[in-house]
Amino acid sequence: EEYSEVARHYRIKETVGSGGFAKVKRAVHLPTGEIVAIKIMDKAALGSDLPRVKTEIEAMKNLHHHHICRLYQVIETSRKIFMILEYCSGGELFDYIVQRDRLSEGESRTFFRQIVSAVAYMHNLGYAHRDLKPENLLIDDEQNLKLIDFGLCAKPKGGMSDHLYTCCGSPAYAAPELIAGKSYMGSEADLWSMGVLLYALLNGFLPFDDDNIGMLYRKIKAGKYDTPDWLSPDSLILLKQLLQVDPKRRITVDKLLNHSWITNDIGVPVEWHSKHQMSVLDEDVVTEMSVHRKVSRETMKAELEKWNYDYLTAAYFLLLKKKTSGRPVRLQILY
Ligand SMILES: COc1cccc(Nc2ncc(-c3ccc(C(=O)NCC(=O)Nc4ccccc4)cc3)c(OCC3CCNCC3)n2)c1
Q1: 138 and which of 52, 88, 116, 324 could share a cystine (Cβ 3.0–4.6 Å)?
Q2: What interhelical angle do 311-324 and 297-304 show, nearest 10?
Q3: Contact call for residues 247 and 220 (beta carbons, < 8 A)
Q4: Active-site entry in 42, 131, 140, 190
Q5: Any idea what DSSP says for residue 150?
Q6: Higher pLDDT, 101 or 166
Q7: Measured between alpha carbons, how far is 177 from 247 in angstroms, rounded to an integer?
Q8: pLDDT band for position 182 (cuts 50, 70, 90)
Q9: Residue 287 reports pLDDT greater than 50
Q10: Mean per-residue pLDDT over the chain, rounded
């Protein structure tokens, strides 16, 4: 009975991953036929972390970006919370790198530009991610990266100014100031993690690694890492600017947007503004939905503009995704 509401609009398939409090399953959105990811959380198991899930859901309602995984719908029952999310058919960037040993500088640049775009967007909206790592970067069916936050690291509403104390994220990607237990700025810690990410893209292994957590922390605080001979001088310069132990000397994401390594052979700075227009509803999608629901366009527009993240919001976003992917903007008759 907990799944009855979800089962009305979705056919649930296999599990694609599970972490702490959540299990993620692949599913089909029946009215459009589109594939989605459903993150299932048990409220009892969440316990005192339940407010962080609510914070994350509110954050996702504000984060609309082509390189951030999209939230389509939220279903809450007495015991569970279901987040209907964008499905990325290419899986984790982590597996992509492992399969290829390491990426070329060109491919690393393509991916890193997308990460810079997503992080610049978040930082400019006052959010820090705090758990940037290849497991939280997924690849969609057009080889684009989508940033997710699987570990339930809620974002501070206070934005970048307030210093964060709760430790979060995975040690190998964590900034020195974060593991030193000092107060730290989320945005600065994110830039360090981006340095670890870029190093992993270019080398296929981590800059700081050790099975012993104490040794790992010592290596991170020392900030010394190997520089294999395949790294170009420009790559070494950028890595040095990101993996600065002193957060005040570390490069900021705004400086990254037109950094010479980032623009190298393209000459164009990274565009971080969102391509998603939330204020203007797509006319074709509104038409299909109003006809399908047998209501006037005005009524349908008024309903959609509430952004309830209910089955109407999901149908809207998934029809829009079909349209931008060149598939017919059609809702199937369910009954
Ligand atoms: C093809 O084989 C494969 C193989 C593997 C995966 C896939 N696809 C596939 N698509 C979609 C997902 C997904 C999307 C979003 C969220 C989420 O939790 N969003 C919340 C969120 O993003 N907040 C947020 C974002 C930015 C800022 C602030 C808050 C959770 C899961 C997925 O998960 C699988 C897990 C497995 C463990 N490592 C992480 C991914 N997997 C496909």
Answers
A1: 88
A2: 100
A3: no
A4: 131
A5: T
A6: 101
A7: 7
A8: confident
A9: yes
A10: 92
pTM of the model: 0.92
**Which residues does a 6 A CB cutoff place in the pocket of ligand 1?**
16-17, 19, 24, 37, 39, 56, 59-60, 63, 68-69, 85, 87-89, 91-92, 129, 135, 138, 147-150, 155
Catalytic residue status for 265: no
How many Å lie between the centroid of ligand 1 and the Cα of residue 60? 13
Report residue 194 as tokens.
């981006």
CA distance between the termini of the chain: 20
Identify which has the larger pLDDT, 157 or 324: 324
| Mean pLDDT along residues 222-234 | 98
Say if residues 177 and 167 touch (Cβ distance below 8 Å).
no
Q: Which of 210, 128, 116, 203 is nearest to 171 (CA)?
A: 210
Q: What pLDDT is stored for residue 155 in this prediction?
A: 44
Bridge partner residues of 20 (DSSP): none
Average the pLDDT over 163-167 and give the result. Answer: 43
At 100 the three-state DSSP class reads: helix
- Beta strands 145-147 and 137-139: pairing type? antiparallel
pLDDT of residue 18: 87
Atom index in ligand 1 nearest the CA of residue 90 equals: 1
Residue 285: pLDDT over 90: yes
Instruction: Compute the distance between CA of residue 133 and CA of residue 139 in angstroms, rounded to an integer.
Output: 13
> How many angstroms is it from 280 CA to the middle of ligand 1?
27
Measured in Å, residue 236 CA sits from the centre of ligand 1 at 31
What's the gap in Å between 16 CA and the centre of ligand 1? 9
Q: Are 181 and 220 in contact (CB under 8 A)?
A: no
Residue 217 has pLDDT above 70, yes or no: yes
The H or E element containing residue 312 is: helix 311-324
What are the distances in angstroms from CA 276 to CA 93, 131, 226?
23, 24, 40
